[in-house]
Design a protein that fits this description.
alpha+beta; 6-stranded mixed β-sheet; 19 helices
């Protein structure tokens, strides 16, 4: 468990921690020289069943970004106020930050009690309660590092605080220092936001690279594992020259999504806000700039809780519920705290009633399952993205999906309303096509996807189509998809013609046949034969690759499979190679390849043809 200490410079934070733990947190030479904490200082108190870790955060405004780096995975805070000086300038700023970070408990510790009297101390406590309503019910301790007053009582109280860290979620760890240790190699230090890590575990860096944990120091003690809410030093099998890492990077159990530069948040205003303003954003050990835009009005008063969007100048690795601190564009004053509701927020229609209702529901939802239900209302979302957004394990995601009666197919998650909506779009698209092309048998699966659901996951839409075929809601005839009631067919007399035409194609041994040649072979009128062969094309039996020159459709699909094999193996297919493989003349081969280009199956690149959409001729 980690407890953060915060307060004005020289109010006795470091001295108090030394009295509690016996350790001085002033670890940098400059800190010892100047007598103030610049970077984060750490002290540890071993107890019977746990080790308490204390972060001594900087009190001086200049070092505020260092202070914020240590607060991401912490649930308890101690606010340090000197009895003889009371609430000072940085105390007020730190009070605002502690309120914005929504700690589970803030403990108020009055230090330097030996420098004043009990009446002044009681007056100070009443002033704090009167001016800061969120501290009215806080626990207050009166201490002196010089005399030892109240130190044992405070230590006993801290030792009995309940553990609140979430060890069940995937491991997530914010790096705030990176260095090399002779004989050990690369070491990183930071705070574990969630989960558990063990020696020999493989983790993802936020850069996407994998590293292995060689050794762990948890709360300053060698350990086989580290858990959420602990201060951890991790020895990694990573060469900093080959695997660069820096303050602000993350170590993660789940493979990270790309960082986001657009987020929807719920903010708590610390000062009156305008509709749009530049901000400095602090998250974990990261800091960037961006623009804050209010979504529910043109202004927000102090203490207003409202919805907003933040556009980040540098993307961050954010997940739902992450806490942010927002400072003014000149970085001189705290303006708001924010809680992440949504990553990758949409670029348009951000203020519609539906959007604002969606964000409000996310803010009010009590658990991941409820939020996932809202997210899946009108969209299919990848399981990978949902696991990242909510920081869930694979099993936890499946449990949440099942709880809300949603569905997971391969990497896609969706609900029944989404499926019904997409099925209706497929049926409507086919019905419209039949009305406009009543002489055509149907369309390919790839074309139906483009017609009905182009911006949706293709493998998921194809899964719906396959289910509709199994259920009889769609039919497939010689590769063409159509509604069951839609039929075009040969007359009895045309069936006889077809038998003769098919016989000629069999004699041609896979070659194409011109309309004129077929008419001559069967002693039929050329115009009559043309009409017949084009009708056979509409029925899906024949395919014209140029005007009046036809292949059997089944041969077209066979040639497409061959070309796909060649192109996937060699990265391209040439006219000469296909000519030799099919034993065609060059002119016919060129016509065939150009037909495949027109259908979107291939794309010409110089003298070669490469795959453009390998699924066009999939049945």
């Amino acid at each position: 468990m980690i407890i953060v200490t915060s307060g004005h410079v020289d109010h006795g934070k470091t001295a108090l921690l030394k009295a509690l733990t016996g350790t001085s947190t002033a670890h940098l030479p400059e800190e010892k020289k100047r007598g103030m904490t610049i970077d984060l200082g750490y002290a540890y108190l071993p107890l019977e069943n746990k080790v308490l870790g204390f972060i001594d955060v900087p009190g001086h405004e200049k070092f505020l970004s260092n202070m914020l780096a240590g607060l991401g995975g912490v649930h308890y805070a101690m606010l340090i106020i000197a009895a003889d000086e009371g609430v000072a300038a940085q105390t007020k700023e730190h009070l605002s930050i502690l309120r914005q970070l929504q700690f589970h408990e803030i403990i108020v510790v009055i230090t330097k009690a030996d420098r004043t009297n009990s009446e002044q101390i009681e007056s100070l406590i009443q002033t704090i309660k009167q001016n800061y309503s969120f501290l009215r019910d806080a626990n207050y301790f009166i201490t002196s590092a010089e005399t030892g007053q109240g130190v044992n009582e405070l230590r006993h109280y801290l030792a009995n605080l309940p553990e609140l860290a979430d060890t069940q979620k995937p491991f997530r760890y914010a790096i705030d220092r990176v260095f090399s240790v002779k004989g050990a190699g690369t070491v990183v230090t930071g705070t574990a936001f969630s989960g558990t890590v063990k020696v020999n575990n493989e983790l993802y860096l936020s850069t996407g690279q994998k590293v292995r944990v060689k050794a762990i120091h948890a709360q300053n003690t060698s350990s086989e594992q580290g858990i959420a809410g602990q201060r951890l030093a991790l020895n990694l099998n990573a060469d900093l020259d080959r695997t660069p890492m820096k303050r602000g990077d993350w170590l993660l159990q789940n493979e990270p999504l790309p960082p986001t530069d657009r987020i929807s948040v719920q903010i708590l205003a610390e000062v009156p806000l305008n509709e749009s303003q530049p901000v400095h954003i602090y998250h974990g050990a990261s800091r960037t700039t961006g623009k804050l835009t209010l979504l529910q009005g043109k202004n927000a008063a102090k203490n207003d809780r409202t919805l907003a969007e933040i556009i980040l100048d540098s993307p961050l690795f954010l997940a739902f519920g992450d806490k942010l601190i927002l400072r003014s564009g000149d970085a001189k004053s705290l303006i708001a705290g924010a809680r992440v509701l949504e990553i990758d927020s949409p670029k348009r229609h951000k203020r519609t009633e539906g959007r604002l209702s969606f964000l409000a529901n996310l803010a009010l939802a009590e658990n991941a399952a409820q939020r996932i239900a809202f997210i899946l209302q009108h969209n299919a979302i990848s399981a990978h993205k949902l696991m990242w957004i909510e920081q869930l394990t694979n099993k936890q995601l499946d449990d949440a999906i099942n709880e809300r009666s949603a569905v997971r197919y391969q990497d896609w998650c969706f609900n029944t309303d989404y499926k019904k909506e997409k099925i209706q779009l497929i049926l409507t698209a086919l019905n419209t096509y039949h009305e406009q092309h009543n002489d055509q048998l149907g369309v390919s699966k790839a074309r139906l996807y483009r017609m009905a659901a182009l911006n949706q996951p293709e493998n998921l839409i194809n899964h719906f189509i396959d289910e509709m075929l199994e259920e009889g809601r769609l039919q497939q005839t010689r590769g063409w998809l159509h509604l069951p009631e839609h039929k075009i067919q040969f007359s009895q007399e045309e069936q006889k013609y077809w038998a003769s035409v098919l016989d000629e194609f069999e004699k041609a041994q896979g070659q194409a046949i011109w309309v004129r040649d077929m008419a001559n072979a069967l002693a039929m009128d050329e115009s009559q034969m043309r009409n017949f062969m084009y009708k056979a094309g509409k029925l899906g039996y024949l395919t014209p690759i140029v005007k009046d020159r036809f292949f059997l459709t089944e041969n077209i699909y066979a040639y497409a499979r061959l070309i796909k094999q060649i192109a996937e193996k060699e990265g391209k297919a040439s006219v000469n190679e296909i000519r030799d493989r099919l034993n065609f003349g060059r002119k016919l081969t060129v016509q065939l390849m150009e037909y495949f280009d027109r259908t979107g199956f291939l794309r010409r690149k110089g003298n070669d043809h490469i795959l453009r959409d390998k699924n066009v001729f999939d049945l």
